[in-house]
Every structure is written in structure tokens, then in C-alpha cells.
């Protein structure tokens, strides 16, 4: 029998986060502990990265990571370009759309950067997110940070909806979800998303800028910190490129889903994100558990996944591709995909594996 209990101990989080970056974490960030008859206690920890003066250097964050022995399982974008089947089992080679699909998924994945500046400190929180909707706004002043700062607003812009998890923006995300009071001190100017950050020494930096927090999942007795944030840009060449990638992503996603039904393969999990606030990395694994939380209208279900992929601080909000998943959203049905949320410890030791936010799936076959 599995018993779910809430932990009040901060000892483990303090030890891990202080060792990595000297930042204390509020009690609201502590996840849950699952105790079973075998294998000890499994604890869920938010996978955000906090950057302070003590760990500004990426190498310091990597060296201090309690899971650094597993970093070898990450796939850099340079490695992916050289071999697009790296770490993917040969039995998936029939999915010939997969390499191009992952290219599109990567291009739509960004590093979320949230600055928190006060009189005594400057903390940067990083997570990951995925652009899943783009809407153009014509003949109106662009509200992005750069236009506001320069006092010369461009005409015409686009709103890009980025899916992620709420604890990237709010250390007390559990309280925010319980009360409906979402991040009262969040300001758009403190948030931006860096795109195409594929190499550490990349000179060209591309950003889209925070506009507003759009929505979260709020449901009694269902633990979910999924959310989306709207960002803006007036770079219409960038918008055109992202629109093409998103359209191709959705097209290939449908083809892969139909192929997975033919081949009866549905356990592959691929996560793309920015561990430790560094360049984009790919993580390949399999899902180990699916938890159905609620069945809702039109044959939909709210569910979450556990998987054995390597993730690290900074992966919170990373998009997750789950082979064979009858995904809602993206114009198919109502709903949204899953994003990575938390990592695991077992008996207070960091291990590979993590769990997703709540997502929405269609649980009957459709033509």
C-alpha cells in the first residue's frame, strides 16, 4: 500500500540548495514523501535553479550538483546534431519522424529567467518552458521590456504562450494554488525567456519578454503547479520562424502518435530543458508510472507521469514528449501537455527520475 504524506522537514532541501548556491528555500517548496513497503522513502523536490553571487559560474553549479554523476546521461545539442538517435533504443528507429520532431521541440524550448532584486541581494531563478501558442497583434504598440525602456515602441508584435510550472515564478506556489492569489509580487519586467541557447559560449542571445501570467491548474485535492506565461516580441522574423516550427511540431506529433498505435510502443520519454541555467540538454528515458487524478468532460483525464530520465535544477517546466500519449491541446482537444516539475530523492539520496505536472489526455481512440 502506498501512503502519501506531507513532509515538514526542510533539512534535505537546505543541504542540497545551500551546497549548490547558498539560497534558502521556503517550506512551501517542499514536495511530498511517498512511503512504500520497498525501496525506502521517495521525496519530490522542485527542480528550479537559484543563482546568486556564490554560484554565478556555470561550472560551479555543475560541480556542486548532487546528481553530477548522472550528468553523462544528458545529451548536448552538439551531440544530438552529430547523432540524432543518441541514447534512443533501436526499437524506436521505425519512428523516422522523431529526429525532425525533436529539432522542432528544441527550437520551441527556452530558458525562463526570473530576476529578484532587493537592497541586499540579487537572485536569479531559472527554469524551462515551451512555446505552444503564438498570436500576432497588428498595428498596436509593442509592450516588451526593450520598447518600454527605449521609449520607442514598435508597431505590431506577437504574444507567445509558454507552458511551464508555477514554482519557477513563486517559491510559495502551493499556497498560491490553494488560495488563488497568484504571485502577487510578480512583475513582467523581471521575466524573460532565452531561446536557442544551445551552446555555452553562444554570442547571439535571443529573448522574448514577460507579459503576464496566464493561467494555472487550480483543483481541490489535486496537486498541480502547471501554468503558462505570455511573452512578447516585435521581432517578426523570429515569430515567423517559431510559427513554422510549431506547425511542423504539431504535424509530426500527430504522425508519431498514429505510428505508435500501429507498433504498440508507448514508453519512451524525452525531456528537453536547461539544467543548471546552462545550455539546452536532452534527456531520454521511459515512464515508470502514470497517475490518473481526475476524469473530466469529453473523455479527458487529468494525469501525471513519473519517469527515469535524468533531470537537474533548472529543468522545472521542461516540455516532455511521451510516445503514444493521446495529447490534448495544440488544437486537437481542450487541454495542455505535461511539463517536468520535480525530481526524486530516495532515502535522502539524489537519484535519476522525476515527475511531471498535471496534463490533460484524451483517453479514447479517435479517428
From TrEMBL:
Gene3D superfamilies to which the protein is assigned, alphabetical: Trypsin-like serine proteases
Organism per entry: Biomphalaria glabrata
Protein name per its UniProtKB record: Peptidase S1 domain-containing protein
Gene name of this polypeptide: 106050989
SUPFAM superfamilies documented for this protein: Trypsin-like serine proteases (SSF50494)
Domain of life of the native organism: Eukaryota
Amino acid at each position: 500500500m502506498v501512503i502519501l504524506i506531507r513532509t515538514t522537514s526542510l533539512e534535505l532541501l537546505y543541504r542540497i540548495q545551500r551546497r549548490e548556491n547558498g539560497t534558502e528555500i521556503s517550506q512551501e517548496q517542499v514536495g511530498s514523501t511517498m512511503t512504500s513497503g520497498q525501496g525506502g522513502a521517495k521525496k519530490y523536490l522542485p527542480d528550479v535553479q537559484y543563482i546568486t553571487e556564490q554560484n554565478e559560474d556555470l561550472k560551479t553549479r555543475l560541480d556542486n550538483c548532487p546528481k553530477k554523476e548522472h550528468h553523462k546521461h544528458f545529451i548536448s545539442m552538439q551531440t544530438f546534431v552529430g547523432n540524432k538517435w543518441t541514447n534512443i533504443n533501436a526499437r524506436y528507429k521505425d519512428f523516422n519522424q522523431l529526429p525532425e520532431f525533436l529539432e522542432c521541440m528544441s527550437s520551441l524550448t527556452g530558458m525562463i529567467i526570473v530576476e529578484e532584486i532587493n537592497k541586499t541581494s540579487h537572485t536569479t531563478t531559472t527554469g524551462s518552458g515551451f512555446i505552444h501558442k503564438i498570436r500576432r497583434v497588428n498595428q498596436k504598440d509593442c509592450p516588451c521590456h526593450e520598447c518600454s525602456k527605449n521609449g520607442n515602441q514598435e508597431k505590431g508584435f506577437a504574444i507567445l504562450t509558454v507552458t511551464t510550472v508555477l514554482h519557477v515564478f513563486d517559491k510559495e506556489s502551493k499556497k498560491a494554488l490553494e488560495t488563488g492569489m497568484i504571485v502577487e509580487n510578480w512583475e513582467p519586467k523581471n521575466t524573460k525567456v532565452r531561446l536557442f541557447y544551445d551552446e555555452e559560449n553562444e554570442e547571439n542571445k535571443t529573448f522574448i519578454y514577460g507579459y503576464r501570467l496566464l493561467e494555472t491548474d487550480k483543483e481541490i485535492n489535486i496537486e498541480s503547479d502547471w501554468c503558462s506565461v505570455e511573452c512578447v516580441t516585435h521581432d517578426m522574423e523570429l515569430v515567423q520562424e517559431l510559427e513554422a516550427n510549431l506547425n511542423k511540431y504539431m504535424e509530426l506529433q500527430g504522425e508519431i502518435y498514429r505510428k505508435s498505435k500501429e507498433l504498440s510502443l508507448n514508453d519512451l520519454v524525452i525531456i528537453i530543458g536547461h539544467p543548471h541555467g546552462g545550455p539546452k540538454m536532452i534527456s531520454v528515458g521511459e515512464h515508470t508510472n502514470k497517475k490518473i487524478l481526475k476524469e473530466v468532460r469529453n473523455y479527458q483525464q487529468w494525469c501525471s507521469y513519473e519517469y527515469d530520465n535524468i533531470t537537474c535544477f533548472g529543468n522545472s517546466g521542461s516540455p516532455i514528449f511521451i510516445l503514444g500519449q493521446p495529447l490534448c491541446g495544440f488544437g486537437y482537444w481542450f487541454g495542455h501537455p505535461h511539463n517536468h516539475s520535480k525530481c526524486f530523492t530516495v532515502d535522502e539520496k539524489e537519484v535519476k527520475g522525476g515527475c511531471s505536472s498535471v496534463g490533460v489526455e484524451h483517453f479514447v481512440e479517435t479517428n
